[in-house]
Amino acid sequence: GRKVIRKPIGVNTLKNDMKILKVWLKESYMNGIHDNRIWERNEMKMSAVKPTRVRLSIDELTLVEIAEFDHLRKGNQGPRLTAHNAVRDMFLLACWTAARISDVKRFPELIKTMWDDNGGACPKEIEIIQVKTNTPAFVPVLPPARRIIEKYNGALPKLPNEQKVNRYIKEVIKAAGITRSVQRVSTSIDGASSEMVKLYDMISFHDARRTCLTNLYLLDVLSVAELMLISGHSTEAQFFGYIEVDEDERRKRMSEKLLAATQHL
Fold it and tell me: Which of 20, 62, 122, 161 gives 20 to 30 Å between its CA and that of 107?
């Protein structure tokens, strides 16, 4: 029959399993049950495949912003259209603020308070203590984010549950005409080959954070330290984990900036 490709195992699961296995091997060695010190060898070092992540370019974000969803209506069911618009707008807001979905869900109350405190006008910055890390983030409200906030007069819509949100986002991206494919590496424990997948089939709300940080990084107007004020990351390693720029691009950018800075020497 058809071979079933088993799903990937999470890094945390692997770490816990390997830790227990090494303890068993070491303890049994110390008790004279065997003389195999395999827990010290490379075979017992955990290796992980970095899953394929996706992001949207600034041009693609423009397509999402102007997208229409009339063709997604079923009869006269208006709420379906409303849900797509609400999810699209909140997803775009995350794409311009680098916010996680847990923080975006707090935006309706937070932004409305800031709107009222600012005399019924859009705030210039958003300051938020992030739910996941309990660390602060300071986010300037860029023009695309301002357009969304002003569209709702500060009273942003609430998001449905995360499963529905991610389903709507896939439909929104497809409706915006973003049909490019990306090559997805296999993270199966069976080591299956990579495959070509439509971006709209892979994207989720969390990719908004990656989209924002990568696009701001590529603008090349802020230092990494300044960008980390927006992302709320405490280390550069954490920050660069969200930047989807290959090493060739980084080397090229580094070389161009260095040459420009030293051309007068």
Answer: 62
